[in-house]
Design brief:
By secondary structure, this protein is of the alpha+beta class. It is built from eight helices and twelve strands. It is globular, with a radius of gyration of 20 Å.
Length: 309
């Protein structure tokens, strides 16, 4: 019996817009218990600098051509998924996981490695959890905690050590001058000049969204990029990091506070952020800034190539 879902890879810029639209519409139905924000999509989709990584973003449509879901594959074995709420926990997710298993097996075989595929499941997604278990996945133990904060809460007070300043990146030229000094910040190790230029040309990112803390020598020692879903009036902070040598100086809190001010000035009513459950310092920082835990994202793993194969 043929599948009632059609799958193909993202082929053009308009496909990216379709994925953005699905992400926004799904958020309007799920709220902060949906982990994929349109900012995540921009950040991940623009990761490659040579063009759209079409073979990493499969898209699933119904027979009428409506986009129902997409996946983001991080070679060789990690697959994230966004599924419209009406199709979660059913045949569509089962088909998507089958695709992920096959793709992971291809990638690992090409590398001559053993291993498996990793897929996410929220603690409230009982339907997906059942499908994962039926397909032979087991929980890895790795978890990501998603936080939420209303912007109706009092403004965060910024108190930073002497010698630092917090502001937005001025332009691409300033980024080029400081790119090497920000490599050790979380998420920015893959943010080179070509990728930054591509982000600026995407229509969804400006230097103002890149809030940075600089030391007395002009080096970036903390940074936070904010994204805005204008329809749902919700912001996302991703990535966010502080250099190990400059922690406990109020810098992470300061770039968060400045980002929230800018989001609120553009109509945002709430903001979300995520971190690994083992990142105790980040968790303390977010909670001290008024964020509360909303949902936990668990990783499930299934071997697809064993060492003996």
């Amino acid at each position: 019996m043929p599948s009632k879902f059609l799958v193909r890879y993202c082929e053009k810029e308009n496909d990216f817009r379709l994925m953005c639209d699905l992400t926004v519409r799904s958020w309007s139905l799920s709220g902060p218990r949906q982990t994929m924000h349109v900012g995540d999509l921009y950040w991940r989709f623009l990761r490659d600098v040579e063009g759209y990584r079409t073979n990493l973003f499969p898209m699933w449509f119904d027979r009428q051509g409506h986009l129902l879901a997409y996946a983001q594959f991080d070679p060789p074995s990690v697959c994230d998924m966004l599924v419209h709420p009406d199709h979660r926990g059913g045949a569509l997710e089962d088909q998507m996981l089958e695709w992920a298993e096959e793709r992971s097996e291809q990638e690992l075989s090409a590398l001559g490695k053993s291993g498996g595929v990793t897929a996410p499941c929220l603690d409230n997604e009982l339907g997906r959890r059942k499908i994962l278990q039926q397909r032979g996945f087991h929980e890895k133990g790795q978890q990501f905690i998603h936080f939420f904060r209303s912007l109706d809460q009092p403004t965060i007070k910024k108190v930073i050590a002497s010698g630092y300043q917090v502001r937005s990146m001025r332009d691409q030229n300033e980024f080029l001058q400081t790119v090497e000094t920000s490599r050790e910040l979380h998420g920015r190790n893959r943010l080179g000049p070509a990728r930054y230029k591509r982000m600026l040309g995407s229509g969804g990112f400006t230097p103002e969204q890149d809030v940075v803390a600089l030391d007395s020598e002009g080096r970036i020692v903390a940074a936070c990029i904010w994204w805005l879903d204008e329809f749902n009036k919700v912001g996302k902070l991703e990535p966010l990091g502080c250099h190990p040598d400059h922690r406990r100086k109020g810098l992470a809190t300061a770039v968060i506070a400045e980002s929230l001010l800018r989001l609120r000035s553009r109509g945002a009513e709430s903001v979300v952020v995520c971190t690994n459950s083992k990142s105790t310092a980040a968790i303390r920082c977010y909670e001290s800034c008024g964020f509360t835990r909303v949902v936990t994202d668990c990783s499930f793993f299934k071997p697809v190539i064993h060492e003996s194969e």
